[in-house]
Amino acid sequence: MDAQDNLKIIHTVDGASLQNRYGKSVIQSHDIGLISLPTGEIVMADPTLRFEIADFKRKAFQRKVRPGMYPVFAYTAHSDRDCVLAFAEICFTEHQEIDYPYPEEGMVTLDDALYDRELRKARERVPGIGIKKGVEVSLMPGSLQKIAGYIGSREFDFVIASQHTIKEKDPYFGDSFEGKPLRQAQREYLEEMLFDLEHYEDFDVAGHIGYLDKYLPNIDSLKEKTPFEYRDFPDLLDAILKSVILRGKGIEVNTSNYSVYEWPTPIKSVLKRFYELGGEVVTVGSDAHVADKVGWRFADAAEYMKECGARYVCRFSGRVPEFVPLEKF
Question: Of all helices (H) and strands (E), which one includes residue 118?
Fold first, then answer.
């Protein structure tokens, strides 16, 4: 069965007008090519560019069609100001958990060969979208040399260095907070992050600063559950941010935090301080883990960044940042 047999709907949307709070636009279709659907099952996330907040409550698009070959069209909205496309590029950042202290939780070492195969298949199937290879490494003081050896022996477009543990305990499981007040746990998290970032070089951005605060609502033993602000640890946070900035590296704005709070990580006072200190390199990641969270609330993150003093967002290729004006993001 060829594509023409499967094309049942004439694209009457092409040339239609769209009126919203951003002004008037004209819809144009673009023939990207063909896609093979051997099972006929389609699951995809909603685009998250210039959507209203209520739209993010919708579930991923799912549909079953007859197996076969289908044409793929991208629709762009053209106005006097811009041309908007849902996604033109995506960078996967699979976790590499070297020496992760909870082996029983199934966090296995990244299978690089499988990762490469799946990326090649994805690029072949959707050649119209730039698909980049990234990785997120979990820094721990005793594993920095192993991590450096791993990253140095492989090619990536983008490397995130994240602090997922405090003294070999992950806040996700709650035991990082046992027997200590909240501010002590937060201080220990930042102190270990500072040590790791000062003793590890091969990364592009520091991931989700404030990671541990995402799990505060789940910790019954804590009387206080207030995420830290810049004013709580100004010296530590300045040292962390300067360590990143002075080496030409950056930080990540992570939208998964919206699932708990009304802001991404880092919290606004920390992100503002990053820009005040001369920081420039900032990326946006959804930390999705599931398909319907890919690109989640990126539009909100862009507005959040503007409020903190940002003019650009960065994307990486071959470990080199490209600065994209926020109005085009």
Answer: helix 112-125
E-state strands within 150-293: 158-162, 205-206, 250-254, 282-285
- CA-to-CA distance for 175 and 142, rounded, in angstroms? 19
For 117-148, give one letter per residue: b (16+ CB within 10 A) or e. eeeeeeeeebeebebbbbbbbbbbeebbeebb
Q: Which residue has the tokens 């019954």?
A: 220
At 90 the three-state DSSP class reads strand
Q: Do residues 209 and 266 touch, judged by C-beta distance below 8 A?
A: yes
Q: How far apart are CA 328 and CA 162, in angstroms?
A: 27
What pTM does this model have? 0.75
Are residues 244 and 275 in contact, defined by beta-carbon separation less than 8 angstroms?
no
Query: In what order do the strands lie in the sheet containing 250-254?
Result: 89-96, 130-138, 158-162, 205-206, 250-254, 282-285
Tokens read off for 68: 């076969």
| Phi/psi at 126 (5° precision) | -130, 70
CB 96 within 8 A of CB 108: no
Give 328's pLDDT tier (boundaries 50, 70, 90): confident
- For 217-246, the pLDDT digits (tens) are 999 888 899 999 999 999 999 999 999 999
Count of Cβ atoms closer than 10 Å to residue 179 Cβ: 8
